[in-house]
């Protein structure tokens, strides 16, 4: 078992491999998940953007740690990730966790949700919905077939990949139109709506689907900006 300690974005992340570790996590934000998990990466990127100290406790899915009684008390569906805040508050679902962290620690690090103007806030909610409705399921489907299925010893269904790629390409054509008049999905400010794309977008590139970004000039420019942020580079270095 590896050692564990609380960390910040400028320090190496220590991990523990069992949620029943005797390490005292009081006063520390604790993330339960796996660094290879896109949903876990989403939270880690948010924490690092906010400049918050945290500890990653690895949940071994193969060993069934996600189904242990102690973990199910944190995440009753038995999936990753989950998070314990410094005051003992527990929350799960990666997008909900990221929003919670931004609201709880609004004055820390990068502002990731605009405030003070109902129209600007509405445009953020619109952009966040775009990611969930027009990117996530298609990108996740491609990545599942081309990466995760192979990791489990299976073969990808390339007909399914082709169908998902076609639909995602149509959606990214609309992204390109949106990004032709603004720098980011919610306007001219980097927000969680952009950050949420990073884990699956990076895996698309890893499995040879980079043309989806590269062939659309405004999408390409946007992707290059968000994927080279220091917080995301730090997450990738942890993998």
TrEMBL record:
PROSITE patterns: GST_CTER, GST_NTER. It is an enzyme of class 2 (transferase). Signal peptide: none annotated. Residues 117-239 form the GST C-terminal domain. One of its GO terms (biological process) is glutathione metabolic process. It catalyses: RX + glutathione = an S-substituted glutathione + a halide anion + H(+). GO terms for cellular component: cytoplasm. Residues 27-109 form the GST N-terminal domain. It comes from the Eukaryota. Pfam families: GST_C, GST_N_2. Its EC number is 2.5.1.18. One of its GO terms (molecular function) is glutathione transferase activity. Keywords: Transferase. Belongs to the GST superfamily. Phi family. This is glutathione transferase.
